Each structure stands twice: as structure tokens, then as C-alpha cells.
Amino acid sequence: MEKETKQRQAREKILNTARDLFYRQGYIATGINQVIAESGVSKNTFYYYFPSKDDLCVAYLQEMDNVGTGLLKDKINSYKTPYEQLMAPLEFVKEWNNKHNFRGCPFLNITTEVTDITTNIRKEVIYNKDGFRSIIRELVKDLKNSDDKYSSIDVLFVTDAYYVIVEGAIVACQSYGDAWPYDIAKKNLENLLNP
User: Fold this and answer.
1) What's the pTM value of the predicted model, to 2 decimals?
2) What is the DSSP code string of 79-91?
3) Is 90 exceeded by the pLDDT of residue 8?
4) Region 73-80 average pLDDT
5) Is the pLDDT of residue 2 over 80?
6) What residues does each domain of the chain span?
7) CATH assignment of 53-193?
8) pLDDT digits (tens, 9 = 90+) for 176-189
9) Around Cβ 152, how many Cβ atoms within 10 Å?
10) I want to staple 88 with a disulfide (CB 3.0 to 4.6 A). Which of 76, 143, 154, 164 is the partner?
């Protein structure tokens, strides 16, 4: 039991270190030796859990997806009305980026560094983005069913438009190091939902 706990702790140390380094300084700029040194584990321990840097990156993205999705759902559930809940993901990414000094989306950051879309790393990115779109789609459906004034909403179109608006806002905020693109994104979403 104690051995299992120590093993779990070693894996968590590696993953926490990678999460910080990959997000803060980038995937390419972060070497395995730096992760090993900063996590305080041996090379053997590192390679036991993560046979390659790519394997570590996949685990990092899975962890970021789990954490981010949980936080996003908490944010959505903190609102009562379907309209407020639909606007919550934009508010969530705005708060995330403000908190992290406009470092941007960890998944979008990885896509700029790992360009081969057939890799397991990029498959994790797409998994995250599909999950985000799925959450938005459910929120759009809830809004459509909540009031007759929304009954003509095209769920798939609004979902994809919302996704593109949010992703664009994330990138623009990262480029400018400022939150003003979120205000424009919110106005576009409001116009989309209330023509």
C-alpha cells in the first residue's frame, strides 16, 4: 500500500511539474531532463511512467482536460437560467486567461508546437475541443427549449459559431495581452442569440 502511494506521488510530481513547465514555457522548450530535475524523481522513475516526452504530453493534456472540464461545469452550474449558463463558458475562459496572464489555452498552445495532426498529442487536443463543443451544444439546446423566442435557433450553427468566437477571443487576448477581445466576443454571441 505504501509503495503504491509513493508510486502515485512520483507520477503526480512528474505530471504537476510538466503541467507547469509545458504551460508556462512551452512543450518544445521543456526538456525531459528539466522535468526530471524539477520534479525530483530519478530518470528510471520518469521513464517507468512516461516512456517518451510525447507520452508525458498526452498525460498532461488529459489532466488539463479533466481539470478544465470540471471547472467549466462548476462555472456553468453556478448560473440559474439557460441564457446565463450558455454565456458561462465565455466568462470561464476570460477568467482563466486573466488569471494566467493571457498565456492562452493549453491545447491551442500545443497545436502551435505540434503541427502533425495525426499524433496522439493532437488527437488529445481534438478530444478536448470536441468535448468543449459538446458542452456548448447541450447549452444551446437547453436555451432553445427554454423559451419560444429561441425556438428558431439552429443548434449546430450556433454551437460552431460560438466555438469559433471563443477560440478567436482566446487567441486575440493572448496576442494583445488584454481582455478587450472577450467583450467583442460577448457582444457577437449576444447578437447571434438575439438577432
Assistant:
1) 0.91
2) --SHHHHHHHHHH
3) no
4) 97
5) no
6) 1-51, 53-193
7) 1.10.357.10
8) 999 999 999 999 99
9) 8
10) 76
Among residues 3, 4, 35, the alpha carbon closest in space to that of 20 is found at 35
CA-CA distance, 108 to 29, in Å (whole number)?
16
Per-residue DSSP letter, 189: H
Q: Which amino acid is at 31?
A: G
Q: Which amino acid is at 15?
A: L
Q: What is the pLDDT of residue 194?
A: 84
Q: What distance, in Å, lies between the first and last C-alpha atoms of the chain?
A: 60
Containing 36, the helix (H) or strand (E) segment is helix 32-39
Q: How far apart are CA 102 and CA 73, in angstroms?
A: 21
**How far is residue 17's CA from residue 57's CA, in Å, rounded to a whole number?**
12
**Which run of H or E residues covers position 159?**
helix 155-176
Mean pLDDT of the residues in the chain: 94
pLDDT in tens, 150-165: 999 999 999 999 999 9
Task: Kindly tell me the burial class for residue 124, based on how many C-beta atoms sit within 10 Å of its own C-beta (0-12, 13-18, 19 or more).
Answer: buried
What is 62-126 written as a DSSP string? Answer: HHHHHHHHHHHHHHHHT--SHHHHHHHHHHHHHHHHHHTTT---HHHHHHHH---TTSHHHHHHH
